[in-house]
Please model this.
Amino acid sequence: MNARTVRLATECLSLYLVAPLATTALLNAGVLQNRDMPLAFFVLFLIALALLARTPGFRWRALRPRSPLPDWKLLALYILISLPSLYLLTIWLIPGGLFGFPRHSPDLWMRVMLLYPLLSVLPQSIIYRALFFARYGPLFPSPVVAVLANAAAFALAHLFFQNWIAVGLCAVGGVAFGWVHGQRGSYWSANLLHVISGWTVFTLGLGRYFYHGAV
Model:
């Protein structure tokens, strides 16, 4: 293992394992507060942009849409699988809370629907997909292992919500997003699936597991 591989492995573990574990520990200890999390996320986003810009062979144009139209077959398949699954999960976990967010706070729900793709999905896609696969993908022995590692990183990023529903859903979703980005090479298709997932989660009522004070 050469020095560059060691450095990249250290970077990868620091960003995707140490950082979320440390953040959760600091929240539990009271060193960090809920209101600090947006700033922490923004700093991580800036670090990801800087590292991505320094990644050999990476070009920003690789993130441009390959087609003005989405992959409709992929989109339809994802919706057919995810929507009923999330609906049944909502009924099981919070039967009285189905569609609670849009019913009780329609204005806030609409703001979340509008801002979620820009303020949440796009930064996360840079940190957890574009950077991960472009810079750290070669560290893994196979594409399948890289996708699974990416899903684990994406799940751990939500550990600070401190509930296993958020972590579990992000692990499952992370496999889909990582596969579409890493294996199909479609950055924007992965983003679209991510957006649809978030909209569905918040609309059905599972958004309570992804809320942490000011976040």
Observations:
- Helices lie at 3-29, 37-53, 72-93, 100-104, 106-136, 143-156, 164-182, 187-204.
- The CA atoms of residues 93 and 206 lie 9 Å apart.
- The chain is about 70% helix and 0% strand.
